[in-house]
Every structure is written in C-alpha cells, then in structure tokens.
Amino acid sequence: MSVNIPNHYVQSYSTNIELLLQTRGGKFRSAVTTGSYVGKQASPVDQIGSVEMQPVTTRFAPMGRVDAPTDRRWVFPSDFDLPQLIDSFDKLRLITDPESAYVRNAVMAADRQYDRLIVNAFFGTAKTGEQGATSTSFTAANEVDVAEGGANSRLNVAKIKAVKELMETNDVDFEVEEAFIGITAKDHSALLKDIEIIGKDFKNGEAPVLISGRVTEFLGFKFIQSELIERHLAGTNEVTLPVWVKSGMHLGMWNEMNHKVSQRDDLQGLPWQVYTTMTGGATRVEENKVYAIESYRA
Q1: DSSP letter at 24?
Q2: Distance (Å, whole) CA 170 – CA 179
Q3: Distance between CA atoms of residues 219 and 167, nearest Å
Q4: How far is CA 82 from CA 1, 35, 93, in A?
C-alpha cells in the first residue's frame, strides 16, 4: 500500500470540513465582521471620532484646524486543537466521507469555538491604543436593567424597545446597520408570552417575524438563539443578553483550519490520529455599537 495514501485522506478531510464550515457556519459568525491576519496581534480598524463644522465669524481670518480623535482597536489570537483517534485503517477511510462523524465533530467543534470567542468578546475587556496596551471595558450605560418591563423579568418587548432607544440615542442608524439580539431558550419562551408578540391587536404595527413558532425578527433586530449565552454570560441572578450591530463586533482568523492525518506509534494498537487546529480571536470594535439586556434567572 502506498505511503502517500494518508495524504489523500488529509486533502479530502480538509476539503470536506471547509465545505461544511462554509455551508453551516457558527450562529454568530455571520453576524460579525471578519478578517484574516498573521502575527501576534492585529488591528481590524483604526477608529476616527466625529468632527463638527466650525462657524466662520470674520473675513480673511487665520485658518485654524480641527483634529479628529483617533484610536485603534486590537484583536489577539488564541490557539485550539482537536485530536481524534481512529483505531483502524478501515475507519480511517471514513474521513473522506463529508457526512462522517469525524468530519461533523470537527466542524461542530470549530463552529462552537468561533461562537465562544465572539460571545466572550461582547462584554470582555477590549484592547485599544497604538500597541493595544489600553484596556477598554464595556460601557455600563449601554445596559437595559433587569427590571425594565417588570420586576424580575426575562426578555420582553419593553426591554427591546428600551435598548433600541439607547442605540438610536447614540446615533446607531438602523437603516444602514444590521442589528442582532442574542437570546436563550428561556428568553425565547418568555418573549412568546408577551402580548405584543402574540396578540392579534398588535399586528397592525410592526409584526414580529415568526417561522415555525420561532421569533426571528422584531423591531429591526434579528434574533440569534444560542445556549452559549446561558453558559458564558450568566451572573448571580441574571443572564446578560448581547445586542449589537454587525460592524460593532469582529472575528479575526489567523488559521482558519489546519489538518494532519498521521499514525501514532507512541500508543498501543498504533491508531491513526486526525488532528485539527485553528487560531482566532474576537473583539468589540466600537463601544456604542454593543449593548446589553439583563434577563432574570431565579
């Protein structure tokens, strides 16, 4: 048997994973901006603050200057891997099947990891400055209180209206920005109890988009449901639901996916190993493009 056969498996495995990643994608990946990078850190955007026109009060006066405030946001990479052991050469052939468990496992693991990077970056400390040495915290004023719309309440229409008002107050333009709210199963259930979502009397206004009993859009927001929010953004009695526009979050990729198939002669039975690695990081891009809704948990 040719010693080059494993190379065919590597190529097929890599192609299958890449195709499935493009087809499936993570829940959050399509809702943020993305970029590819090299090096120990990268700056996805140079931030330039707003400037205002100045009044001209005299004729032929010396010309002044207006300097726009500038800053730089950074994203840092983290490495991840997935070693899968295959105990026979016959099973090794299965990785050429795009529907095999080995391929699906790698794709789903990568999707979840991309989502974890993004979820943790919503309210994590972002790095700014010329070299990324300045820590920038999430803006507390961009949060809708847990008591909005009722004491000890989960997601409701009142909270959605409140966060939209906050965003529009900070000049977020819903006509040009794609806006999202991350929700959990518990919050989706709570939303379905809200009279403005299910009541027929409210359908003359902006009706929510329901597909197979699921609220997918409302008041200019698209909903993304993920239980990673429940696991990673939970406090003592609250879960913080992220609200953002696409241009406000960034996923950086240093190594989309890398794959190697090799035989482990250091293990009994000489199993084959399908080894997958990836490197990426995520960050908030701009503070007033990311918001929070507090949802009660008993």
Answers
A1: T
A2: 14
A3: 12
A4: 28, 23, 19
* Average pLDDT over every residue of 161-186: 97
CA atoms within 13 A on the CB side of 110: 28
Tell me whether residue 196 is exposed, middle or buried, using C-beta atoms within 10 angstroms of its C-beta: 0 to 12, 13 to 18, 19 or more.
buried
8 A C-beta contact, residue 228 and residue 112: yes
Nearest Cα to 184, choosing from 224, 217, 144? 224
218-235: pLDDT as tens digits: 999 999 999 999 999 998
Neighbours of 239 (CB within 10 A): 23
According to the model, what pLDDT value does residue 255 have? 87
Q: Which carries the bigger pLDDT value, residue 43 or residue 24?
A: 43
Helix, strand, or coil (residue 220): coil
The label of the residue with tokens 């790698």 reads 106
- Residues 256, 280: Cα–Cα separation, whole Å: 8
Structure tokens at 20: 């499935």
Compute the distance between CA of residue 124 and CA of residue 161 in angstroms, rounded to an integer.
25
Contact between residue 182 and residue 229 where contact means Cβ atoms under 8 Å apart: yes
Asked if residue 75 lies in contact with residue 250, where contact means CB atoms within 8 angstroms, the answer is yes
For residue 221, which amino acid is it? F
pLDDT (tens digit per residue) in 139-163: 999 999 999 999 999 999 999 999 9
Q: What is the pLDDT of residues 3-35, one digit of tens each?
A: 455 566 767 777 777 766 655 658 999 999 999
DSSP labels, 112-124: HHHHHHHHHHHSS
Q: Classify residue 158 as exposed, middle or buried by CB count within 10 Å of its CB (0-12, 13-18, 19+).
A: middle
At 69-105, the pLDDT tens digits run: 767 899 999 999 999 888 877 677 777 776 677 777 8
